Amino acid sequence: MTAANGDPIIQAQNLHKTFSTSRETLFILKDVNLEARRGESVAIMGPSGSGKSTLLHILGTLEAPSAGTVRLAGRDPFAMKEDELADFRNRQIGFVFQDHYLLPQCSALENVLIPALVHPANREETLARARRLLERMGLAGRMDSPPSELSGGERQRVAIARALVNAPGILLCDEPTGALDQATGEAIADCFLDSQRYDKVALVVVTHNEPFAGKFDRVMRLRDGKLVAGCTQNLEI
């Protein structure tokens, strides 16, 4: 367990998400509440189609809720103008997905630096941070390698470093071990938990991986649109 710091950096209250079709209205999220502080980790599990990724997209400001409120770092992101929101997202939120989405023409180090290109100030400091992150991920000797020369686990470690290069307060991850074998997945899980400890991020991960989820401070379960506290044992996934 890691000690959480200060007030919640993620505050989601009474979230609802619906989608309307020509035949019906689909209720994806129903009165969901979630808080997380810096230095705290939360795993979200649930059956496929239960709304896990939708919730993550709302927390990441990629999608607005149909009802309810979201406050990130004390601010309402959905009240911001588009350019302000893009800047806020770049600075405050890191994303890691099942697919690493690395640019094939760039080296590992260049891929890590991409989010920092929006804010070119402190170039040397950012470069030093990117190098430190890759070293911490066990990639000190792979910084100049393109993705084609990296293993699946190494690519995902580069993606984690990229998500952390702007020192965000929030790290959101969608099935980050889903495409990896068990041993590699466990190594990646350790990278996430090290990041939680070193970078003091609020770490929220959507996963079907029960052993991975069991390493987190809290495990929540989404079922029938509702988010409840849960354990990883006998969980329908």
Which terms would index this structure?
alpha/beta, Rossmann fold, three-stranded antiparallel β-sheet, 9 strands
Averaging pLDDT over every residue, what do you get? 90
- CATH third-level topology: Rossmann fold
Distance N to C terminus? 25 Å
Order of helices and strands: EEEHEHEHHHEHEHEE
Named at the architecture level, the CATH assignment is 3-Layer(aba) Sandwich
Number of domains: 1
Any idea of the CATH class? Alpha Beta
Approximate helicity band? 25-40%
Biggest sheet statistics: 6 strands, mixed
Number of helices: 7
> Count the strands?
9
- What percent strand? 25-35%
Strand order of the largest sheet: 5-6-7-3-8-9
Helix and strand arrangement:
Layout: E1 5-20, E2 25-38, E3 41-45, H1 52-59, E4 67-72, H2 82-92, E5 93-97, H3 108-113, H4 123-136, H5 152-164, E6 170-174, H6 182-199, E7 202-206, H7 210-213, E8 218-223, E9 226-229
Parallel strand pairs: 3-7, 3-8, 5-6, 6-7
Antiparallel strand pairs: 1-2, 1-4, 8-9
Helix pairs in contact: 5-6
